[in-house]
Amino acid sequence: MTITDRSPSLRPRPREAAPAASPTGCSSFKLRQLSRRVSQRFDAELGTAGLKTTQYSLLSHIVRLGPVRPGRLAAAMAMDASTLTRNLQPLLAQGLAVLEAGDDGRSRQVRATALGLAKRAEAQRAWKRAQQAFNGRIGAERVARLHALIDECLALLEQDGSAEAEPLAQAARVAGR
What we know:
It contains seven helices and two strands.
């Protein structure tokens, strides 16, 4: 056999693609684990303003959309009506929001009070500190990639109708305003 003879056994093999990464464990558990850890950090900072992250997000939506019917607010936040009612109670009790008669007399609407607007402004400063600390800890580039990946996953889940991706993505954007 000469050097120019290239039988199949002597030909260089094409480089094989690395096998695709295969997830291990439960995606739901991993996402909840991350969510709890992030929420703990944000709750600690927002606690200085007297709110939890969930309350800040709800108050921000009320300020942005209000006065707003509860059904529309629940849809914008991708939550069911009973969850909205339960989460709204502390804001009503603290005088940060009110539930009042709607335009047609049969409907109701939620709006932020003057106290709620002031509390939201205070909490927004705390949220900004929490977000900056998170960006510093994780890295701003990594956080941007995380946000893009989350938005991409929400859109993919929306395609099969198994989740309300756009309201969730919108809720995330509104909470930061």
